[in-house]
Amino acid sequence: MDAVQQCVIMSKPSSSKCNLDCSYCFYLEKEKLYPDQSRWQMSDETLERYIYQYIEAQSGVDVQFAWQGGEPTLMGVDFFRKVVKLCEKYGAGKCISHAFQTNGVLINEEWCEFFIENKFLIGLSIDGPQKFHDHYRVNRAQRGSFDKVMAAVDLFKKYNVEFTTLTVISDVNAEHGVEVYRFLKEIGSTYMQFIPLVERAAREDPKDGLMLVTPDRVEADVTSWSVSPLQYGHFLTSIFDEWVTRDVGKVFVQTFDNTISSWCGEHPGICIFSETCGHSFALEANGDLYNCDHFVYPEHKLGNIHDIPIKEMNNSQQAIEFGQNKKDLLTLDCKNCAFLFACNGGCPKHRFNVSPSGHPRHNYFCEGYKHYFNHVAETMDKIRELVFNRYPINDIMILKGMNLVKSSSKKNTFKPVGRNEPCPCGSGKKYKKCCMD
Ligand SMILES: C[S@@+](CC[C@H](N)C(=O)[O-])C[C@H]1O[C@@H](n2cnc3c(N)ncnc32)[C@H](O)[C@@H]1O
Ligand code: SF4
Ligand code: SF4
Ligand code: SF4
């Protein structure tokens, strides 16, 4: 069992407990998985076991912890002081970093000082200007959380805490892409992640109590707050057009970064556009490990870290199959798609539609992705040419400004360069030995 597949774990020390009650949240209902459990906080014993095992499970020197929930700030700063101490104890010379995803509501001076001192990278959830954000991101009294999030932004700026933003694209903000993008820029976000919202609700009460179902369930309906595929496609292209003419090199949009990587023949950084699912697990507060944050369902539990080491679960048949299924279960439409290299069929959580040629398990967002990839194809070709000829990528803004690169809606015929093919820069070396690095 010495195999060395890297794994990433999103851990939920406060389980699904939260101080907000966002209407679209997929995680709040996970408490139904543990009807007999009175304690929702991760115990010291589980924490220590987790930190030891997670570090041990990594083959490389870099170990990234990702703290999430529920709401991780509910654990209090002292819990994370323990985290840092345990990482020192078990770090074994590895380079350990921490990402921390929060709704921002409880952020105060103490948190900021802690984040700065321990170099935590913060992800802040914000869905755009107040009228969009407060629509779904509410507390139990249905009051919006926008003012508290903005207070957190002010504190982050005051203390120079590095933060990225995570914005859910729903039916409410999807048609206001440029407004959302400009707002995020204005509040100082230079690294933006957008998550398209789609959930399906069961038609009948499910046995496990979870109303939001996995893609295998047929008797389920897309919720009203989900974004439509084309709405999401238009959202992406509207902000792409703004970004590519003004902000390349200044603002990082995860989706665009990933598309550039794919166009240049590299692996995209995010799992949804990767060939396989990787080993991105979710850890519940009691030590239960699941295939993925979006597959926290009984049938996707790998085991508990008190019974089986993470390293072993990471190498288990169940984990390997889950990752590989992303590639193996592609529809024929995906296999024949000109954008497969950049899309890879998208996230399996979203594969519940029937494809145009009649195959089940096709990605709900397909139409939107095709719209996006067609729209950016010509610009991406140009960016790739710039990269391979060692020009600054920002030069794309000059070419766009002079109207020398258009937004394309024609079918893309681009084929990515293989690792073993000659490098397009003309060096005569193999691509993997040259510009790919
Ligand atoms: C589950 S929350 C946990 C961390 C923290 N409470 C927060 O809101 O940032 C993590 C991220 O998932 C997003 N999210 C919640 N429900 C979602 C859903 N149904 N689909 C996609 N993303 C969702 C949230 O907006 C948030 O950015
Ligand atoms: S703040 Fe995060 S965990 Fe809490 S309800 Fe909203 S999305 Fe869910
Ligand atoms: S199921 Fe989706 S979110 Fe989970 S690892 Fe695979 S692509 Fe990523
Ligand atoms: S764009 Fe559609 S057909 Fe093409 S790979 Fe993505 S999901 Fe499949």
TrEMBL record:
<keyword id="KW-0408">Iron</keyword>
<dbReference type="InterPro" id="IPR034491">
    <property type="entry name" value="Anaerob_Ser_sulfatase-maturase"/>
</dbReference>
<dbReference type="Pfam" id="PF04055">
    <property type="entry name" value="Radical_SAM"/>
</dbReference>
<dbReference type="InterPro" id="IPR004027">
    <property type="entry name" value="SEC_C_motif"/>
</dbReference>
<protein>
    <recommendedName>
        <fullName>Radical SAM core domain-containing protein</fullName>
    </recommendedName>
</protein>
<dbReference type="InterPro" id="IPR023867">
    <property type="entry name" value="Sulphatase_maturase_rSAM"/>
</dbReference>
<keyword id="KW-0411">Iron-sulfur</keyword>
<keyword id="KW-0004">4Fe-4S</keyword>
<comment type="similarity">
    <text>Belongs to the radical SAM superfamily. Anaerobic sulfatase-maturating enzyme family.</text>
</comment>
<dbReference type="InterPro" id="IPR013785">
    <property type="entry name" value="Aldolase_TIM"/>
</dbReference>
<dbReference type="InterPro" id="IPR058240">
    <property type="entry name" value="rSAM_sf"/>
</dbReference>
<dbReference type="GO" id="GO:0051539">
    <property type="term" value="F:4 iron, 4 sulfur cluster binding"/>
</dbReference>
<dbReference type="InterPro" id="IPR047207">
    <property type="entry name" value="SPASM_anSME"/>
</dbReference>
<dbReference type="InterPro" id="IPR007197">
    <property type="entry name" value="rSAM"/>
</dbReference>
<dbReference type="GO" id="GO:0046872">
    <property type="term" value="F:metal ion binding"/>
</dbReference>
<keyword id="KW-0479">Metal-binding</keyword>
<dbReference type="Pfam" id="PF13186">
    <property type="entry name" value="SPASM"/>
</dbReference>
<dbReference type="Pfam" id="PF02810">
    <property type="entry name" value="SEC-C"/>
</dbReference>
<keyword id="KW-0949">S-adenosyl-L-methionine</keyword>
<feature type="domain" description="Radical SAM core">
    <location>
        <begin position="1"/>
        <end position="230"/>
    </location>
</feature>
<dbReference type="InterPro" id="IPR023885">
    <property type="entry name" value="4Fe4S-binding_SPASM_dom"/>
</dbReference>
<dbReference type="GO" id="GO:0016491">
    <property type="term" value="F:oxidoreductase activity"/>
</dbReference>
